[in-house]
């Protein structure tokens, strides 16, 4: 709609301010239409889903996996006993967090009472197993 308004404005400008004969005006009008078609072709690709080959999709997924594997493979592993004992805590861990970060987030947000209790209990257990250092 906006391109039609621009086209009407150009037509009125050309017809009132310039002395063009009708063939020159039609040539100019076809030029405007060609440019308008080119602009619409550029935007048509963004409107809907794109069809991609299976090979291109597969290679894209491989690149994605390689990039994200580097980011999240350094997370430590925890004993199964801890994972079972503090199931809610471990289930709420986010990929970029370790268990202490999860505890901190749980205690800070205090959204889930069970999660807060498990986080506090886990931290108390870790603290109790910590060797006493009298410095």
H/E topology pattern: HHHHHHH
Distance between the termini: 77 Å
The DSSP helix count reads 7
Q: On the 0-100 scale, what is the average pLDDT?
A: 75
What structural class should be given to the helix and strand makeup?
A: mainly alpha
Based on CA atoms alone, the radius of gyration comes out at 33 Å
Overall number of strands = 0
Q: Which stretches of 5+ consecutive residues score pLDDT under 50?
A: none
What proportion of the residues is helical, as a percent range?
Answer: over 70%
User: What percentage of the residues does DSSP assign to strands (E)?
Assistant: under 5%
Can you describe this structure?
This protein has about 140 residues and is mainly α. Helices cover about 70% and strands about 0% of the residues. The protein contains 7 helices and no strands. It has helices at about 1-15, 20-45, 55-70, 80-85, 85-90, 100-110, 115-130. Helix 1 (about 1-15) runs antiparallel to helix 2 (about 20-45). The longest helix is centred in the first third of the chain and has 23 residues, at about 20-45. The chain is elongated. About 5% of the residues are buried. The model has no long low-confidence stretch (mean pLDDT about 75).
């Amino acid at each position: 709609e906006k391109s039609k308004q621009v086209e009407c404005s150009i037509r009125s400008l050309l017809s009132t301010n310039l002395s063009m004969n009708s063939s020159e005006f039609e040539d100019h009008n076809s030029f405007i239409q060609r440019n308008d078609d080119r602009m619409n072709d550029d935007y048509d690709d963004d409107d809907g889903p794109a069809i991609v080959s299976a090979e291109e999709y597969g290679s894209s997924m491989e690149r994605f996996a390689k990039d994200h594997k580097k980011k999240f493979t350094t997370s430590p592993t925890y004993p199964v006993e801890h994972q079972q004992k503090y199931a809610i805590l471990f289930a709420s861990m986010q990929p970029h967090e370790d268990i202490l970060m999860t505890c901190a987030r749980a205690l800070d947000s205090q959204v889930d009472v069970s999660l807060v209790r498990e986080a506090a209990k886990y931290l108390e257990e870790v603290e109790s197993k910590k060797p006493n250092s009298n410095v």
